[in-house]
Amino acid sequence: MTGKPVVNDDSRGPGLPATRSAKMVRCTGPRIRSPLSGKQIAKLQEHIREAGCDVARLCRTFGVETLDQLPVTKFNRAIERVDAYRARHARGGRPLSREEFYCALERGANPIHRRMVRDLRAGMDFGEAYDLALAEELNKGRPWPLWLLKWVAWRFLEIHEPKLKARWERETQPARDRATIDALAERLKANNVRGYRGKAEELYAKIYGITVHALRKRRQRRKKV
């Protein structure tokens, strides 16, 4: 039987169009990164000479040994880093003013930064402008580039990581309390201290600046949960 291969609906991911084949082949080899062109290397070297920065240090920043090993996807970031170095030394190390910071973002190659400057000048705070710029870039259409997904993930974690950390500490604190108190109690028992368990609790509470009563209440709240 000849003709076009039958599309397998199971080969589609959520929100993705149907594939042209029932089988999906994933490349497991190393990713091939295109190196910089001769013009790009010359432009980067010109920026480096004007800025007076260390070539070896710039290469180490991007995990390469020479400029010709730098992948083309890192070219704009390298230019931005060299220009930022030049601007910092031109100011004699003083911090950027707000307008200088906005201008530096506008000169960059990233469209998110340019959108942020537009909204920051309109009176938005930094976090709100950043979130709106990410949303506008996502709204341009799919498939989303990997760098954009990474930025969104970093922003998501930046917002929610403190809450997750606080919840983790709240949930694991009683177990950590108990482990430390057990270790202290063993040491006191080995030294033939009477009432070593209570003494260990008192010592632990004193070290962490809380009362024994508060320590026990914390344990009780965890049991109720």
Provide an overview of this structure.
There is one protein chain. With about 220 residues, this protein is mainly α. It is about 65% helix and about 0% strand. The protein has three domains: about 60 residues, no CATH class; about 50 residues, no CATH class; about 70 residues. α1 packs parallel to α3 and α5 packs across α6. The radius of gyration is 28 Å and the shape is elongated. The termini are far apart. About 10% of the residues have low confidence.
Indicate the topology.
Blueprint: H1 38-51, H2 55-61, H3 75-90, H4 98-107, H5 111-121, H6 126-138, H7 146-190, H8 196-207, H9 212-224
Helix pairs in contact: 1-3, 4-5, 5-6, 6-7, 7-8, 7-9
Q: Which characteristics define this entry?
A:
3 domains; mainly alpha; 9 helices; 225 residues
- From the helix content, strand content and strand pairing, which structural class follows? mainly alpha
Give the total of domains. 3
Low confidence ranges: 4-25
Q: How helix-rich are the residues, as a percent range?
A: 55-70%
Task: Give, in order, the helices and strands.
Answer: HHHHHHHHH
Hey, roughly how much beta strand do the residues contain? under 5%
Mean pLDDT rating:
77
What is the first-to-last residue Cα distance?
Answer: 63 Å
The total of helices stands at: 9
Shape estimate = elongated
Instruction: Determine Rg (CA atoms, Å).
Output: 28 Å
**Describe the biggest sheet?**
none
Please provide the count of β strands. 0
Summarize the structure.
By secondary structure, the protein is mainly alpha-helical. It has three domains: 35-94, no CATH class; 96-144, no CATH class; 159-224.
